[in-house]
Each structure stands twice: as structure tokens, then as C-alpha cells.
Amino acid sequence: MAEPGEQAAPLPVDTESAPSAAAWYLIFVLTLAYTVSFIDRQVLNLLVAPLKADFGLSDTRLSLLQGLAFTTAYILFSPLFGRLADTGSRRRLLIGGIGLWSLGTGLCGLARGYWQLFFARAAVGGAEASLTPAAWSIIADSFPTRMIPRAFSIFLMGPYIGGGLALIFGGLLLEAAQGWDLGAVPYLGALQPWQVVFLVAGLPGFAILLLMLRIREPARKLAAQDSGQRMPFAQVWRTFAERRDFYGNFYAGMASLVIVLYAFPAWMPAMLMRRFGASAATVGVQYGVAVLVTGSIGVLAGPVIAGWLQRRGRIDALMRVPFFAALALIPISLALAFAPSYEFAMVVATLASFTYSLPQALASSGLQMATPNRMRGISSSVYVFVASVMGLGAAPTIVALLTDHVFADERSVGLSLSVTCAVAAGVSAFFVGRALKGYRRVLALQ
Fold first, then answer.
1. Burial class (CB within 10 angstroms; exposed 0-12, middle 13-18, buried 19+) of 3
2. What CA–CA distance (Å, rounded) separates 337 from 420?
3. What is the predicted pLDDT for the residue at 222?
4. In the chain, what are the domain boundaries?
5. pLDDT-based confidence at 182, cuts 50/70/90?
6. Which residues are in the Major facilitator superfamily (MFS) profile domain (predicted)?
């Protein structure tokens, strides 16, 4: 193993050896980190009602906390962290990012006004931008090629575990905190229950830092056309341009699919509470369990399905599964608009969670396999950039704007969610379908 920051000696593209214990420990810690990041990111979704009450917010202003505040910083820092992942120590980048976003989550709990919370959310977003480019690059260098989709599927369980835990324990903690008497506790006595939820959510990240200290920087695996030296920006952009039939359609298609991935968790709890009168604790536990279980099963099932297709000669299986998942999400999303009961809506949400999670590990793996090593960080950060603009930034606000200004009834949030996700899934299927040919061409060059 190379020391952090050292130039590692080139390795063959794939030794086909079994992953080491250090590689599995890496996946374990990174999955924990990704889980915690999504707890910190999505716990706000269950705090819609108390935040609206305390700050007098409309759905649109609230959606800016869910989307714009987080996403603006996430987008601004993604290219920087992508470049650092390609040129420096990915381990140090991960340690710094985890510490900063955990601190930012705690600051959300200390916010006394809308703009304080807005900028604390921005701090969380900026720091979390370090995780994807560094983690994707370091995972691809730690596992043999045949194992990369499986490794990514484990890592990408993090959002579903984290999103589920944020709903489950966020709802239970919010309900419990309403009965706590913290008046005698210095600093905490004046806090609202939603602030306590944020403070507790920020604590696990600091424990992850201790586990990260045992991670070592792996050597970078280089393909035949890689030089092992830092890739100049001109060559990076030339590669993007030469392979635009893949990269352009891939980024557009997956960014559209991410709208569905973020819109459902952002507004499904509010839909269930507003339309069917469910409590935050009930929705948190039931929808949280659904997201955790079906999301995790979906992301693990993706490589199994892709492997089955590859054994039958489909070399583009890593892109073909996302295409069919996008098609399936169209009728699933439309069904939400006609939900006659809480139970029916939960079934739709569960199907959506499985389906939009199914292609995530495959898309990440396909992007890494189609990209030279020394630009994997930047290609991942571009993915993060476009996915963040559409998913984190646009998805919650599109739904809120439809609710506030088109349907003009907060009980219609389910209809807004249905229309947004059905259209986004259709756009995704169009572009991912176009990316298939480019992906096959790029694989032939590797």
C-alpha cells in the first residue's frame, strides 16, 4: 500500500485476485460514512412541520433548505474535490470531509433563524461533496475489476440505510424530544425538539473519523493507455469530447433519474401526513423501513441482474438495467396520483424505492470502467454536479412549486410528486437509451 499522498506504482488493470481484508474494511467504513451522510442530509425531510411552524415557511422556502442551500455548496465544491481525488490523497480528503459535514449538521441544530439554518445546510453540502469522487476512485483501485459492481452495490446501500434510519429514528426522536425537559441543561434548555434531532444526527460522523484512521491509500490501477502521471486538464476535456456520445447521454439520463430518487424521500412523508393524517413517528418508522429494506435490496440486486445479462452476451448490461428501471418508474410514479389509501401509497413508494435504487451501483461502476484512472475523480464530480443540480437542487423545488402555484393546495403534494417523477423517468429512459451505443464503443477502447 502506498502512503497517503505518495505516487503509487502502476498496477495491471485487474489481477483477478480475491479482495484483501483491507479492501473489505474500506468498503465497511465508506458504507458507514455514506450512511451517516444521508442521515445528515435527509433528516430534514421529516422536520417539515416543525420548521414550517417555527419559521413560518411556505413549501417553496422550505424546499430551498432541502435543495438549494445544500446543493449550491455541493456543486461548487464537487469539481475541486474531484480534482483533488485525482491528484492527491483520497484518504485525507475523506477524513476532512466527514469531520466538516458532521460539524455542519450540529450547527443546523443550533440555528435560531431561517438564514442560519440555510448556511449551516450549505456547510453540510459543501463538505459532503468530497465523499463521492474520493470514495468511487479509491474503491475502483481496491477491488479487482470483476468485483467492482459488487463493491459499489455495498457502498451504495449507504443512501438507503441512511435515508431509512433518518426517517425511523428522526421521527421517533422528534416525538420523544417533545416530552423532554431540558430546561436545567446548559445551552440545550432553549432548544426546540427539531434542533435536538439535528444535534444527535451530527454525532455519528465523529465516530467514523476514528475508523477512517486505519484506512490506507491504495495504489492506483492503470489501464494500458494511462501514463500514471497527472492528466492535464486539456486531455481530460478532450477525452470527454471524444466520448461525448456516452458521457453526455449518461449524465443527462442519470441526472433525470436522480430527480425520482430525491423527490420521493423529500416529499413522500409530507404526502402521507397531509393526505392521510398519519403522524410523523408512524410515517418515519413505516416509510423509513420501506426505504431501508427495498432500497438496500434494489442496490444489491442490480449487479446480480447485470451479471445475468452479461453472461448472456450483453456487454452493455451496466447501462441496460438503468434504462429498463427508468421505463418502469413511469407507471409506478403515475400510480401515486391515484392512491386511494395510505396502504396503496406505501406500496407505490416501496416499488419506487426498489426500482430507483436498482441501477445506482451499475451506473457508478459503468462510469468508472469507461473512464481512465487519472480522470475518474473529475468524471465522478461531473456526475455529482449534474445529479445534484437536478436531484438535490431541482427535485424538491419542482414538486413544491407545483404544489404552491399550480395546484395551490398542500394536500396535492402527492399529485405534484407523481407528475414530477413520471416526467423525469421518461426523460431518463430517453437519454440512457441513447447512451447504450456510446458505452459499447467506449468499452471497446479500454
1. exposed
2. 11
3. 54
4. 21-212+233-445
5. low
6. 26-436
> 21-212+233-445, superfamily in CATH?
MFS general substrate transporter like domains (1.20.1250.20)
Query: 256 is written with which cell numbers?
Result: 433525470
Residues 194-205: pLDDT tens digits? 888 888 888 999
**The pLDDT of residue 250 is above 50:** yes
pLDDT one-digit tens code per residue, 12-53: 344 456 778 888 999 999 999 999 888 887 778 777 778 888
Strand pairing partners for 406? none
Alpha helices (runs of H) in 178-316, residue ranges in sequence order: 193-202, 204-212, 233-242, 244-276, 280-310
- Maximum Cα–Cα distance across the chain: 68
pTM: 0.69
By the 8 A CB rule, do 168 and 283 touch?
no
Task: Copy the grid coordinates of residue 366.
Answer: 459503468
Question: CA-to-CA distance for 16 and 24, rounded, in angstroms?
Answer: 15
The confidence band for 278, taking pLDDT boundaries of 50, 70 and 90, is confident
Among 252, 75, 273, residue whose Cα is nearest residue 175? 273
Decide: residue 443, CB within 10 A, 0-12 exposed, 13-18 middle, 19+ buried. Answer: middle
- Ramachandran area for residue 11 (φ above 0: left; ψ -120 to 50: alpha; else beta): beta
Distance CA 369, CA 373 (A): 9
Grid cell, residue 100, equals: 466538516
